[in-house]
Amino acid sequence: MDKIVRCLLFGPAGSGKSTIRGLLVKRFPLKYVYSGDLIRKEIFENTEFGKQAKEYVSKGKVVPDDLVNKLMINTLSRKEFLENHLLLDGYPRTLAQCNVLHNVIPPNLVIEIDVPRDVIIDRMSKRWIHEASGRTYNLDFSPPKVPGKDDVTGEPLIRRIDDTPEAISARLEHYNSTESWAVEYYTKQRIVHRVSGNTTKEIWPKVSKIMEKYLKPVAEVSV
């Protein structure tokens, strides 16, 4: 049996990471877990975790490590994730989370998406979101099929009130002060591949080429 791939995907908001994630899952035999989806699902279903997480999310605060760790480890300990190739996005985000993950299901591949700051700010200022699912659209690169409507549900899209240049800059600073340390943690293990570019069309072929060194593609995809 081939070595099981456990890949982490890093990149700041606005880097096109969610699009790259979707392409990876289509092209390669990867199970994927996105922490943002899990947390939203728990909140929507009003679980015990969801109730606790909502107290932080509703105030614009980050859900504490201890809560996130419990949710993620419970999820990643399932057979379907332990025994299959895995793509993990949104976790870990701190050094403490890296240490917890290492003891349960240590990653062996990390891909970091690197996009210039000015490109991210311009891109996010043109972003529209389907609030319930977290699906994002960009008027320049990935517009919805019907203006103002989600491709899947047809429901209205919204603009985030904090998608202003000032707020976006603040989020980029937060990424640099938290997740960049997590990337450094794995850089020391020599498993990090940094992929730079301005657009998804430029970045995706590089990411695909990296993954092809570890897994055989199962489908052709295009950006």
Automatic annotation (TrEMBL):
Coiled coil: none annotated. It holds the Pfam family ADK. The keyword GTP-binding does not apply. Keywords: Kinase, Nucleotide-binding, Transferase. Residues 127-162 form the Adenylate kinase active site lid domain. GO terms for molecular function: AMP kinase activity; ATP binding. It comes from the Eukaryota. The keyword Iron-sulfur does not apply. Belongs to the adenylate kinase family. NCBIfam families: adk (TIGR01351). This is Adenylate kinase active site lid domain-containing protein. It comes from Acrobeloides nanus.
